[in-house]
Amino acid sequence: MIQFSSGTTGTPKGVCLTHRNILANLAAIEKGMDLVPEDVELVGSPFFHLVPLYVGNNQLHLDTFAFIRYPLLWLESIEKHGATITAAPGFSRALILERLKRQPDKKYNLADLRLLCNGAEPISVDLMTRFMTEMGGHGLKPTAMFPVYGLAEATLAVTFPPLNQTPKIETLSRKRLQSYQQAVISQKDEEVISFVSVGVPVSGCEIRIVGEEGYVGEIQIKGENVTKGYYNCEPAPEWLATGDLGYLRDGWLYVTGRSKDIIFLHGQNYYAHDLENIACQVPGIKLGRVALWGSFDEKLGRDKVLLFLRGEAELFWQVQQHLRRVTGLEIDVMIPLKSFPKTSSGKLQRYKLGQQFAAGEFTQVSQEMAQLLEEVKVQRRQEKIAPRTFTEKLLHRVWCEELLLPPEDMGIEDTFIELGGNSLRMAFVVQKLARQYQVNLDQATWAEYPTIRELAAYLDQRSTIGVKTRTGVFKG
Predict the structure, then answer these.
(1) What domains does the chain contain, in order, with CATH numbers?
(2) Deepest in the core among 73, 180, 419, 435, taking most CB within 10 A?
(3) Angle at 346 between CA 344 and CA 352, to 5 degrees
(4) Element (H, E) at 249
């Protein structure tokens, strides 16, 4: 069987898998997860995983678009069907936490869930910890979090942690890691970076780290589940290079990033996903909608740091300031994007953005953004103008509720995107306006009238508010 790789750092390759590869990994997964026919899986991936057929258990499929429209459907489905195993990448857990803020009294019964597989992308320790803390109030056991590591070349699974254990987390010295690639556990109050272990090799698979013990190096694998080569390519060597970086501690694997996702600057190594996690500390920034990349500039003799972001100049300015404060890193080029290239499993393909930049595809938009950023400081000094009309107050209230902003932080000249909104949150607002206030609005119209003042004027002109809004629903 030919299974294509995700293409996270390059063109997807056809991974040639034999029946022995597949059966060996299926047996290892069954053993490592202690799967039984009574298990119920809830997944959002396409129906091509063979594990339920091998084990004989039921698998429920959650439609991706249904989840995006209503993220809490995932928790409802776990409770309704008594799911014992599920999987969720980082962006989905972040979305669920955000939606739960709006329903603090809502409770779900997640007691049946014994394994929540966490993989497919670098694991954010902060997000994982916050998610487990919140889900603990819904009956989720601390031992249910199951950080894993796998890739197409290994059929699927490479490492699993032992069952019935809480995730193993290490906090390293950021300076030693960036400067010397040393995985040194931090012993004092200093800048740190945390990683969660993805466990030990599954049955029939071996791993090793290229380089000295205690240092980060490339992860290599071999075993019965590992491919012997790619389609129309030379046979793979005995030890297959994964392109991932990590280190071993007492036999446990810690994945630190992709070898091509490192920014080299001033003799230090900055991990793109780590910088993106730091950027996500800025309100309005979410994983999967921000990317960092280093592009070597021969004139400068160093990497240019590129920031790709979905948002307006104000948001770029905030992220730039935050990264500077936290890491000392200066952003050289800021590039606005409407969408980010990703694999079918949701992995960010940073290398494609780097290729587009090298080809000059972002020259114009980056120059325009640079000009806009010069104007941001002046714009920020302008006083916020409070809503005056009935419609402005309605929109102001709904925007504040969705963006979780205090009223004083929002004026009628602000745009939804500038305030940290995005197309998904915009869809939620459109739905709320239609359902609760009988206000019919599409996102195209919103884009044409981006501020509260402009949008309110448009709606007033069409007599949308007041005619269709029932008395008592909202007091202006």
Answers:
(1) 2-258 (3.40.50.12780), 262-381 (3.30.300.30), 390-461 (1.10.1200.10)
(2) 419
(3) 85
(4) strand 240-249
Predicted local distance difference test score (pLDDT) of residue 46: 64
pLDDT over threshold 70, residue 134: yes
Q: Is there a contact between 346 and 91 (Cβ–Cβ < 8 Å)?
A: yes
Residue 21 has pLDDT above 80, yes or no: yes
Sign of CA dihedral 147, 151, 157, 160: negative
CA atoms within 13 Å, Cβ hemisphere of 284: 25
Nearest to 143, CA basis, from 116, 172, 109 = 116
| 263: exposed, middle or buried (Cβ count in 10 Å: 0-12, 13-18, 19+) | buried
Name the DSSP letter for residue 363: H
pLDDT at 422 over 70: no
The strand pairing partners of 118, in sequence order, are: 147
| 149: helix, strand or coil | strand
Q: Which pLDDT does position 9 carry in this prediction?
A: 45
Q: Which of 92-101, 154-163, 369-378, 409-418 has the lowest mean pLDDT?
A: 409-418
Give the mean model confidence (pLDDT) for residues 282-309: 84
What residues contact residue 87 under an 8 Å CB cut-off, 6+ apart? Answer: 43, 44, 45, 116, 117, 118, 119, 120
> What's the pLDDT band for 239 if we cut at 50, 70, 90?
very high
Does the pLDDT at position 328 exceed 60? yes
Q: Among 454, 28, 45, which Cα is nearest to 200's?
A: 28
Collapse the DSSP code of 82 into the 3-class scheme (helix H, G, I; strand E, B; otherwise coil) and give the result: coil
